Amino acid sequence: MKKKVLSILMTAMMALSLAACGSTDNSTAPAAGTDSQPATAESVKTEAETPAGEQILKVWCWDSFNVDAMKTAGAMYEAEHPGVSIVVEETLSKDIQTIVQTCAMSGQLDSLPDVFLMDDQVFTKYLQNYPEVFADLTDSGIAFSDFAASKVANSVSGGKNFGVPYDSNTVIACYRTDYLEQAGYTVADLTDITWDQFIEIGKVVKEKTGMPMLTNVQGEPDLLNMILQSAGISVFDEDGKIDLVDNEGLKEAMEVYMTLVKEGILQEQVDWSGYQGSINNGTVVGTINGSWICATIMSTDQAEQEGNWAVTNMPKLNDYAGATNYSAQGGSTWAVCSASKNYDLAVDFFKSTWAGSTEFYDSILTDLGAIATYLPAAESEAYNQKSAYFNDEAIYSKIVSYGGKIPTVNKGIYWTEEKEALGIALSKVINGKSDLDAAIAEAQSTVEFNMGQ
């Protein structure tokens, strides 16, 4: 089986190599839930280690963090279901995408695992392009209403559910409380506010501390997309066509970002390492990103930072109908292969763990720091424990509650193309190489070309 998959992967690499020729990797920050270090061999249960006669549910996912989370779910399920083995195989995110595409095009769906993890940023694209790969989970008995609606929306097509949400991609604003105090503010002053209010506070903080409020990687429109989703603004219309020109919400969001940079309230970094360093070295007051950024914040070796961080919601667009203080960034979702002979087992497994057990979510939060998008988890004891690092506050229950308030937007299947085009547009305007309207128009034309419109 493994040799067959490797053969398919090699074939896919050769088939896709022409498309890759001449391309460059401009990514600087890894999206939440994407590839990092592979799991060690010791952390992965293989088919060879499975006793003969056992029913096997094979799972593919990337990153030792994700592997360990799935292994925890597997161990809990196996303890209650003798004769079942959950086999987790570490497979890079890009490899999963390539193999899914190749198997769909060749009709060899039986080469896919029973369950696989899919990046939220491409789930919709793959679901629309290769619908035959994904099992319909709509009538499975999984309570999708127990998850944040914005997260569920990533794996919905035609009103049907094709995925089980995994990690939290809820956006949070994190600030150094000691720096805020130097400027005469508390985190309460930055809660439930607009971007206009934030900019005024940022000016004062910069004047009194000499430090910018926020940090971001130059050319990356992640914060821009967070602002857009917080207001329920989509850059694709109902027919899936790109909608940038005459999109007043987009223009307002870009103007906010440009003002942040112009006033020195947001400091752009050359790359992801610079972004992390600005947080860990204490040269910025805070950051706005997915809740997974907590791990970066806590990774510093500066002991004085412990207890001097606080979490709240992000600012919202000024006077924009439907604007909120809540958004999403990154994340991933579990899918069940339509060709799986273990559909019922997969569904029961999810209903017993990822979609039905607060005990499970308590375990991966405590042991791995994995934050759920499963709403009932917010009421558990573990999620309500106070974090000494974050000002003795129960940040995890707060994050889960934020997740239930995120507006749902249509990201379209060309979301990555839109993201790249908007990143270029932002850079051109900020560097004085284009005015805003012209940059937006150029971005629209670029995405339309990539979409074949």
Automatic annotation (TrEMBL):
Signal peptide (residue range): 1-19
Positions of the region Disordered? Answer: 27-49
Compositional bias (Polar residues)? 27-40
The record, for InterPro entries, names: Bact_solute-bd_prot1
| Keyword check for Signal | yes
The answer to whether keyword Signal applies is yes
Q: What keywords sit in the KW lines? A: Signal
Q: Which domain of life does this protein belong to?
A: Bacteria
Q: What is this protein called?
A: Carbohydrate ABC transporter substrate-binding protein
What organism is this sequence from? Waltera intestinalis
